[in-house]
Design goal:
With 264 residues, the protein is an alpha+beta fold. 35% of the residues lie in helices and 11% in strands. The chain is built from 10 helices and 8 strands. It starts with a helix and ends with a strand.
Length: 264
Amino acid sequence: MSIAIAIILVTVVGLVGAVILVLAAKFMSVYEDPRIGQVTECLPGANCGGCGFAGCADYAKAVVENGAPVNKCAVGGADCAAAIAGLMGVEAGASVPVRAIVGCQGAEGVCKIKYDYQGISSCAAAKALHGGPKFCPYGCLGFGDCVKACKFGAIHVENGVAKVDQSKCTGCGACKDTCPQKVIWMHNAPDKPVVMCANHEKGAITNKECNLGCIGCMRCEKTCPEGAIKVNNFVARIDYDKCTGCGKCMEVCPKKLIFKHPAP
């Protein structure tokens, strides 16, 4: 008799618990717009953060709930933007290709070496030791932290300086975020030139450190018909809102370090 009572009690407790769970699921559930899942399925799932959000799911939620632009996924490109736009009933808009560029020409034999580094093969580690083995304190250290960060195999080290394969780069920005020198930039104007130097020291000092560093001579600034390039803090920089891509700055640069990067 006692066994039967125990079985009945356990069954009753189980039923009560099940009812409580069902009611809790019903009254405590949070509604999620089904379009969030649909938008997430349109995304490539790289979770690279290039869109400015933590991952694909967060971006999808921002698109549906906050009206974030549908063309922010650099990895998915125009096809992805069009698919999301179709779900949301909006125009996709123009997807401007954003690609990484290593703003340094300081390869082996170009940028001078101040000591023989034998430590951990890491840019961050090398930088911690007197700023790294190269005399230029602003250039690429060439130990490949960016290579490890790239999920798409779009960046490699060649002759001591990182190079980006524009055909593979998705513009996610992972290499930019990991570079301790902050010499990797995101560029969205493939038809316009880039000043490939980050050295902010006076020309005389730059010349002693690197054969291809900007010396702030201002020839580019004086030549530009649009006033789009200025020497600021001893290095030339381009205002892309003014630049027309005429290329006159490239022609007069004595170091030949201003040039265009072909569109992927």
